[in-house]
Write a structure and sequence with these properties.
The structure is a single chain. The chain is mainly α and 377 residues long. Among the domains are: 48-101 and 334-377, no CATH class; 180-320, MetI-like (MetI-like fold, Orthogonal Bundle). The protein has helices at residues 3-17, 27-35, 40-66, 86-98, 106-124, 131-151, 168-193, 198-212, 216-226, 239-264, 268-276, 281-296, 298-311, 323-329, 341-376. Helix 5 runs antiparallel to helix 6, helix 7 packs antiparallel against helix 8 (198-212) and helix 7 (168-193) packs across helix 13 (298-311). The longest helix is centred in the last third of the chain and has 36 residues, at 341-376.
């Protein structure tokens, strides 16, 4: 064989080696064939799922956009249409956000939101420095400043009773306090349940099992109605404070079980290694065990946070009007009576809840990816 023929043969072989496989074997088409249309049953389920998505999306889009009313001063403008009544949401938006908080003092609520964002955003971005000072601001300084701004009675600020609070303000207060308080309480309860001291272990187990055995509505009802009966004469707590205590204790029991699952997943060698280098119990837990355990249960922790955020709507049972409660209260407004007003309000409230819950879910996924990348390095 001549040199020219050999070169031609080698070139043809090299060209054949780099030929890409057919599209039906790789890429989206192959994935769809293997996962969505791999059998007759999967094909039927896929087509049924596509049809349901189409029905839901088109129905929602038609109600919220195509057949919606966008302008009007009362419910008369919304009655001819079968879609959402967005003028009602526009007219009631301030009430949905603040409740009956005095209009001239709502700048204090806005300032509180701004201070929360200023502290929370840098805390959530890993590349921002001075995390220690940022955490001290968020967990020590900000709660005190927020209390002074929202409640008043100090520094010349007029007092605003919590009975006037409502809407998204109450939802965020209950959720943020519950989340912030339940996390450290959950850690303590999880460690207490694994303690070698019988008194601590039995007390932790009893509290966790008792709280997890009753619904949140019962806890809220007990904290609001029954708690004052056990207090000394003349003693009383604010209704919102009682709800905050009940929500925090309820969430801490579920948080404890989530964290306990992470602690049980840590290999025994980690405990023995910490003991071998002379670490005491506090050092072993804070430096070795808890960082690993918490990393393992990030999805469970965020799931508890999301569930707690949605459960804040139950405070309506004790007379606190959160976002959903304010929406329900406005369904009876004579000025805005229309067939679609209730559905419009629920759609708006659902979108707000989804926005916060989806944000927490996406941030959880970001944290998981970052922690996994650190393990790979």
């Amino acid at each position: 064989m001549s040199a020219h023929s050999m070169q031609t043969t080698e070139a043809a072989a090299a060209a054949a080696a780099v030929v890409k496989p057919p599209r039906i074997q790789v890429g989206p088409i192959a994935w769809a064939r293997d996962n969505l249309f791999s059998s007759v049953g999967n094909t039927i389920l896929t087509l049924l799922g596509v049809y349901l998505v189409y029905v839901i999306v088109t129905g929602l889009f038609g109600f919220a956009v195509l057949h919606a009313t966008w302008n009007g001063d009362n419910g008369d403008a919304c009655r001819p249409n079968s879609g959402a009544c967005w003028p009602m949401v526009k007219a009631k938006f301030a009430q949905f956000m603040y409740g009956r908080y005095p209009e001239e003092l709502r700048w204090r609520v806005d300032l509180t939101y701004l201070l929360a964002v200023i502290g929370l955003v840098p805390l959530m971005i890993p590349s921002v420095p001075y995390k220690l000072y940022n955490a001290l601001y968020m967990f020590l300084v900000f709660p005190l400043v927020a209390f002074v701004l929202l409640v008043g009675g100090y520094l010349g600020l007029s007092h605003v009773p919590t009975e006037l609070w409502g809407g998204l303000l109450v939802t965020l207060v209950v959720a943020s306090v519950g989340i912030t308080a339940s996390f450290p309480l959950g850690i303590l309860l999880a460690l207490g349940r694994r303690s070698r001291m019988p008194l601590v272990r039995y007390a932790s187990v009893g509290f966790i099992e008792f709280v997890r055995g009753v619904p949140l509505i019962t806890v809220l009802f007990m904290s609001s109605v029954m708690l004052p009966l056990f207090l000394p004469p003349g003693w009383n707590f604010d209704k919102l404070l009682r709800a905050l205590v009940g929500v925090a204790l309820f969430a801490s029991a579920y948080m404890a079980e989530t964290i306990r699952g992470g602690l049980q997943a840590i290999p025994r060698g980690q405990f023995e290694g910490a003991d071998a280098i002379g670490l005491n119990y506090r050092q072993k837990m804070s430096l070795i065990v808890l960082p690993q355990a918490l990393k393992l249960v990030v999805p469970g922790i965020v799931n508890s946070f999301i569930g707690l955020f949605k459960d804040t709507s139950l405070v309506l049972i004790i007379g606190l009007f959160d976002l959903l409660g304010i929406v329900q209260q406005n369904n009876t407004d004579q000025k805005w009576l229309a067939p679609t007003n209730a559905m419009t309000g629920y759609l708006f409230a659902g979108f707000v809840f989804w926005l916060f819950c989806f944000g927490m879910s996406r941030y959880s996924a970001f944290v998981e990816r970052r922690l996994s990348a650190a393990d790979k390095r």
